[in-house]
Design goal:
4 strands; transmembrane; single chain; transmembrane helix; membrane; 3 domains; Bacterial polysaccharide co-polymerase-like; alpha+beta; 13 helices
Length: 494
């Protein structure tokens, strides 16, 4: 410490010169720098009293990011400059410099709610918009303009998003409705074309096959009966003249049997039943009918019945073949039908989802029109500040003085290193490790005494001049104005 004090004392004129010049330069930079005023507007996220649970819009934090990007876009900043008349006094600045100055002087900060997840809709608590300008009124005007833009644009963006969502969902609903109708027609038409091959028809087909088997057995039995009667009729034809009454009785009996069989297999209104009834009535009357004619008519009747029964049997065989073919195609039809039904279910699910989303969007629109959804509210408008935001002159002066003192000590220490001299006995002892036997004080010569007096006069003059210049820079001397503010690209915003 003694060495440091000794070094400062020896280099005091140089140290004081550097310190005074550094302090004066810092004062000049402080008073010549432009004053910047800062104003802030606060926007609060107003949540609805009752959580409706249908808000499908973006989270508020994401909406703030999108709004900030649009606010800081070049076109919007150009509109703000024209609307507020910024940079009216700085015609030399280009449009890019004006936009860059406005963008750098405006800051949008999001305040998150404590203890809430970032992904939650309640994460955003408020938004603070801070703007800087040369005048207090302009700083407040810029902050309020951006705050109004945030509130209005958020509502406009949400309305536009709701309208876009409604338009898309409605067009998608119509498209899915048409596709669903087409798919339903395809399923119905395919099911109608392959009715016997459907999985739901297999049980009925099995029952129908059993019925066809029973009917075919009954037809075979009836055919065999008719064939026996035909043979009996042919065998008894030669004895028809000898036994006309017996033959007529047999004919009547055969006609009754045929009529009973026809009634069992055919509808009551069938033409064949009507014909058999008329034939039986003629046989019972027996008028004008000879034996040979009766036999011939009876044979024709049996032949006609055999033809009908054979046709029925052929129809049963055809139906059996169709059933066998349908059952063979059943696996393929089942796969095709399941694929079509899966597509139908997929379209139906998609249609239900689109309808649900459309209902949510319409509910959200209704709530928004009634101000029942979350919204940005201008909680505190920006007011013109009373003091400049960058007015920490004491701090700047202290930092300038500290920097000047540090520079002076570095220069003095460098000069000492360039001319190392042992000036005290303690320095000699540290350098040689031996204490001197005797040390005599240094006596100044007349020339050195005159030099010291001149040094003291220089120091006094330096301090006086420095104090006067400092007071002039700070504007404390009446009649002497302080230096003007040097214009910068951010000036003129007032």
């Amino acid at each position: 410490m003694q060495d440091l004090i000794s070094m400062i004392w020896r280099r005091l004129p140089l140290v004081m010169t550097i310190v005074v010049l550094g302090v004066l330069i810092s004062f000049y930079l402080i008073v010549s720098s432009p004053r910047v005023y800062q104003a802030s507007a606060v926007i609060q996220l107003d949540m609805p009293a009752v959580d409706q649970g249908v808000d499908s819009s973006l989270p508020a934090s994401r909406r703030v990011q999108l709004i900030e990007q649009r606010l800081m876009a070049r076109a919007n900043l150009r509109d703000v400059i024209e609307r507020l008349g910024l940079f009216a006094d700085t015609a030399g600045l280009s449009e890019t410099e004006k936009i860059g100055a406005l963008r750098s002087s405006t800051r949008i900060e999001s305040i998150t709610a404590p203890g809430v997840s970032v992904d939650s809709r309640l994460a955003l608590a408020a938004i603070v918009i801070t703007s800087q300008a040369e005048t207090p009124a302009m700083a407040a005007a810029i902050a309020n303009d951006f705050a109004d833009s945030v509130v209005n644009r958020d509502r406009e963006n949400r309305k536009a998003r709701i309208l876009e969502s409604q338009e898309y969902l409605r067009s998608e609903e119509m498209r899915l409705n048409e596709q669903l109708s087409v798919q339903e027609r395809k399923v119905v038409e395919y099911s109608a074309r392959n009715e016997d091959s459907l999985p739901t028809s297999q049980e009925f087909l099995q029952t129908e096959l059993a019925q066809l088997t029973e009917i075919e057995t009954a037809l075979d039995r009836d055919i065999m009966t008719l064939q026996r009667e035909r043979l009996s009729l042919e065998a008894g034809g030669s004895a028809a003249d000898a036994r006309p009454s017996a033959s007529l009785v047999q004919q009547i009996r055969g006609a009754e049997i045929e009529l009973a069989q026809a009634r069992r297999t055919l509808d009551p209104d069938h033409p064949e039943i009507k014909r058999l009834e008329e034939s039986l009535a003629r046989l019972n009357s027996g008028a004008g009918i000879g034996g040979s004619d009766v036999l011939r008519r009876q044979a024709e009747l049996i032949d006609a019945q055999l033809v009908k029964l054979n046709e029925q049997k052929a129809g049963i065989g055809t139906r059996r073949t169709e059933i066998d073919q349908a059952r063979a195609r059943a696996p393929e039809v089942t796969r095709e039908l399941e694929a079509m039904q899966r597509e139908q279910r997929r379209l139906q699910d998609r249609y239900n989802e689109i309808s649900r989303q459309l209902a949510q969007v319409e509910t959200q629109q209704m709530l928004m029109e009634n101000d029942q959804t979350e919204r940005f509210v201008l909680l505190e408008r920006a007011l013109p500040p009373e003091y400049p935001a960058l007015s920490s002159r004491k701090k700047s002066a202290v930092m300038g003085a500290a920097g000047s003192m540090t520079l002076a000590l570095i220069v003095a220490f460098a000069l000492e290193l360039m001319n190392p001299v042992l000036r005290r006995s303690t320095q000699f002892a540290r350098a040689t490790g031996t204490r001197p036997v005797i040390s005599l004080p240094y006596r100044l010569s007349e020339a050195e005494l005159r030099a010291r007096r001149r040094r003291n006069i220089y120091l006094v003059v330096l301090l006086v001049v420095g104090a006067v210049v400092a007071l002039w820079l700070l504007g404390r001397i009446p009649g002497l104005p302080s230096p003007g503010v040097v214009p910068t690209p951010t000036d003129g915003m007032g």
